[in-house]
Amino acid sequence: MAPGQSQKFLLEGEHVDYQTRRHWSILIRPAMLAALGLLGLSILFGITGSNIVTGLGGFGVLYLWARLSWHIADWRIANLYLTDWRLFEISGIVTKRIAAMPLRKITDLTYEISPLGRLLGYGRFIIETAGQDQAFSRLEHIPQPHDLYEKLSHLTLHGPPPRRSDTTQPHSQPAD
After folding, report:
1. Could you give the CA distance from residue 106 to residue 101 in angstroms, rounded to a whole number?
2. Taking Cα atoms as reference points, which of 60, 57, 29, 23 lies closest to residue 139?
């Protein structure tokens, strides 16, 4: 999704301060399953030598590769935005989904970085709110989590900075 496509979902007077997509590591599990399926099919063909058995297993492998393609397309489309009023994510290939949380509802913010996250550059946010569960109780696989933590902390504690008359581009993470 192009950064300009968020404009139709912004409220009047709302400004995007930060935009990113989930870290590419979110694709590791479906890619590993597809690769293992292909390897398993190759071993199955080597053991049985049967085109019928291999053909049936091939449908399973095709499913895994189609599933991987779907995950990649969904990852490319989904974007997370932090504005001066709310945090929202636009996702969905067929059905567009917008999940949003007002910043004023955030009561506690934690971010965690696992050893693999430190190596690859991603983290997880745990957001607690006053009241019932929200759309963003957990944000997984966020690239450069410290940058988002600083912006989100500043906005929740101090509110939005005063806006100048010129429009500046929001901070964006490079697409991986």
Report:
1. 8
2. 23
3-state secondary structure of 109: strand
pLDDT band of residue 162 (cuts 50, 70, 90) is: low
User: For the chain, what are the domain ranges?
Assistant: 3-22+79-172, 28-73
The answer to whether 153 and 109 have CB atoms below 8 angstroms apart is yes
Dist. CA 106–CA 60, nearest whole Å:
43
Whether 149 and 112 have beta carbons less than 8 Å apart is answered as: no
Mean pLDDT of the chain: 82
* CATH number for the domain whose boundaries are 3-22+79-172: 2.30.29.30
Partners of 143 in beta bridges = 122
Collapse the DSSP code of 113 into the 3-class scheme (helix H, G, I; strand E, B; otherwise coil) and give the result: coil
pTM for this predicted structure: 0.74
